Amino acid sequence: MSVQDIPPEFEELLNRLLDSPEGEFSPTEFEAFQNILKSSPDAMHQYFEYIDINTGIKSDWNERLQSLEQIVTRETPASVRSPSVAQIHAPGPRRSQYINYALVAAASMMVFLLMEWLVSGHFFWDQPQIAQTETPVVNLPYIATLTRATDCVWGGDAPPKFSGQRLLSQDLFLEEGYAEFRFDTGVRLVIEGPTKIKMDSACCATVSSGKVVLHGYEAAPEFALITPQLTFHDIGTEYGAKIDADGEVDLHVFEGAVRVDPNQDNQMFVASIIIKEGQAKQLKEDRIDDIQIKPEDFKREVPTNPKNIQAIREETRAYDSFHPAIISDPESFSDWRNAGMGWKNPWRNKLNGGEPAHGDSQPLNSLTGSKLADDQLGLVELRKGNTAWRTLKKPVRMNKDAIYYLSFYMQKQNSGKASDKQYGNLSLMTATPAQSQNKILIGMSSHNFSTLQAGMQVIENAPPLQTNKNYFFVAKIVASENASDQIFMRAFAPEETIPSHEPPVWTCATDPFKDSSVYDQVRLHAARNAEFLFDELRIGTTWDSVINTQSPELAP
């Protein structure tokens, strides 16, 4: 408590106590004065300073307490009211009985302070600073992704919420429908409900019962699928397995081979056995039977229905074709800053305001390499330090459980002989960057490497991209309220086919990190010695919403 915290009535009460004629200081006023002394060390200190002026008592509180200790240790508690104590604190000839009472209260308070000081070595208002350390958050690693789900009904306490969700080690129960998991090693597992499965690690899963199809990945380490009695190890494999709750398994090997090992001592499996491509076995506790292979009994891929433009529109949060409403003469002067949907304002040259962003329009060109509708044609060229800002109507929120996707086309122009300041990028940022330095940045470095930045992580991957060549950048943003966040980015060259679902390999990926920012700003930037073209910017909640070439603005 500071001096400013002393109750304002204290000064008035003190003056009345010392200056009022005998009998004018009422019992009610004295009780209020005594309560202030008990509750406010600063009031007590101020009172003793007045007494010091009149009686010359030591100003050092520790010395004062030591003096009081000598009095207390040689006097009985009753003697606290004796003239010896009163004499020490006598304020002068105008002393009243209330002053004596106040001195007794002060002495009692001093006894309390003395005990506090003797026991702890400090007063309660002067507590030593204890370093506050935050308990480190131990984040479990992500091991897989729910890449696709159709007609799913999940049971259990913590079911997946949406396709694209990153998964920790956990138990899952798919009551109905079909789901595909892609483990971080590249192995895919398609399950059909009802199936009970536990994600053990990026190289292992346990299936208590149900139907699964495993797609091996040649670059992945051996994947173990554990059933109640047996463990299957893939060898460049695609296989289907139907697992009963009692441990009986029908195993169908479509490609490669499967090594089967027992989970415990078993006379039928004294050693590993290999089941080869084209074979099917019924594996029981006491025997192995040949059965007919039936690929048609398994859903080897998750069935999907083509999405119409209305569904794409609902999954799209923001879109910009950079197509000007009116083509000017010359064309480069066309106003490209107001196109698209999902934005609060046009592109501008400063955060939270400023003039219209600088940049040249190419209203009849496109970087997509595919046929587009007339109102999708158009791109923007930024050069020599140009920056363009635009505000999203629906921000990218990292403080909630969500998946976001972002895509855009970009081409780096031949910028001459300069070797530095030739980078270009797209960033997601907050409206108050001075308070939050966090951002998500995707683009090309001065040396043409693909670049991904999130938080304190900056990832640049070789081989370098080429100038004067179109690249399609797609990012996946994994946001979580309680678990870690993660960003993935893939740069597709023109000769590559864009897959219909998430790729097994990304160009860049961050380590898991924590970010609670709300990104409502999109920034396009070309460095001082750089020239970049930008086209077809999309932000959505599904992979489909950012790779579809149709304009979501065409939806009814």
Key structural traits:
about 550 residues, eleven-stranded mixed beta sheet, 8 helices, 27 strands, about 35% strand
List the helices and strands and how they pair.
Blueprint: H1 9-19, H2 27-39, H3 41-55, H4 61-74, H5 83-88, H6 97-120, E1 144-155, E2 166-167, E3 171-183, E4 188-201, E5 204-215, E6 224-226, E7 230-243, E8 249-262, E9 273-276, E10 280-283, E11 288-290, H7 309-315, E12 316-320, E13 348-350, E14 353-356, E15 360-362, E16 379-383, E17 387-397, E18 402-412, E19 424-429, E20 440-444, E21 450-454, E22 457-461, E23 470-479, E24 486-492, E25 508-509, E26 518-526, E27 531-540, H8 543-547
Parallel strand pairs: 5-6
Antiparallel strand pairs: 1-2, 1-3, 3-4, 4-5, 5-7, 6-7, 7-8, 8-9, 8-10, 10-11, 12-27, 13-14, 15-16, 16-27, 17-26, 18-23, 18-27, 19-20, 19-26, 20-21, 21-22, 23-24, 24-25
Helix pairs in contact: 1-2, 2-3, 2-6, 4-6
